[in-house]
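User: Before I run my own analysis I want an independent prediction to cross-check against. Here's the chain; please return only the structure tokens and, at the end, one sentence I can use as a sanity check.
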Amino acid sequence: MLLLAMDTATPAVTVALHDGTRTLAGSVRVDARRHGELLLPGVHRVLAEAGRELTEVTALIVGTGPGPYTGLRVGLATAAAIGAARGIPVHGVCTTDAIAYATGRTEPFVVATDARRREVYWARYDDARTRAEGPAVDRPADLPAHVTALPATGAGAVLYPDALPHRLDDGPEHADAAAMAALAAERMAAGLPLDPPRPLYLRRPDARVPAGYKVVTPTAPAPSAGAGDRR
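Assistant: Structure tokens:
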């Protein structure tokens, strides 16, 4: 087993290589505006650091979000392209699951990431491996009371301390592909299914059909004067 994992659902552009037992190499670059520029160099960097080739990779793991559309699609499209080119499977892992797994916690907590627009993506966990609720998207002030009462990790907890006052001081702020790969490897070894590599978009699309838009139906051109049977 050699897993190449990547995630671009948060401001972190992260890649890792995992052999089913341990992380061989990992890369994390935090830059919310350069996902497309940083992802493939990160792939090349971890392969070089581990001394492995892309041809040795047996499966790809990609973060499915939730996350902003622009960033999230970079990782999903890149994983799909590599998987198709190499003829290897592509599996998805919920990004908040990877963040939760990295905490190693055995007690309930919340993962909250930045959804922009003054909102957070959140999910509630019984422990680092067990998601109990979510993911969902809400304004911080609208979070359920049973969520705000729990310890929280992620950029959402950093940005909105009034709504999520019980921040985990040692909890991760963004996703790390090393944790994502380790979680995927653990699930695969246990025979548990992984998610399909489809994005978790929790909002409706911004694009709208303009009000009063009229559909124009093309019509066949009128026959030219004198047209007829020329046999």
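Sanity check: Strands lie at 3-7, 12-18, 23-30, 59-63, 90-93, 109-116, 119-127, 130-138, 152-153.
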